[in-house]
Amino acid sequence: MSILTKAFDFRADAIITDCFVVMPEGVKDKDGNRKYCHIENAAWDTGATNTIISPEIVKVLGLQPTGKASISAYGGIVEVNTYTIDLCFQNGYKIANLQVMSDETNSDFDYDVLIGMDVITEGDFCVSTKEDKTQFFFRMPAEGFQV
Question: Could you tell me if 100 and 83 are in contact, meaning their C-beta atoms sit under 8 angstroms apart?
Answer without folding.
Answer: yes
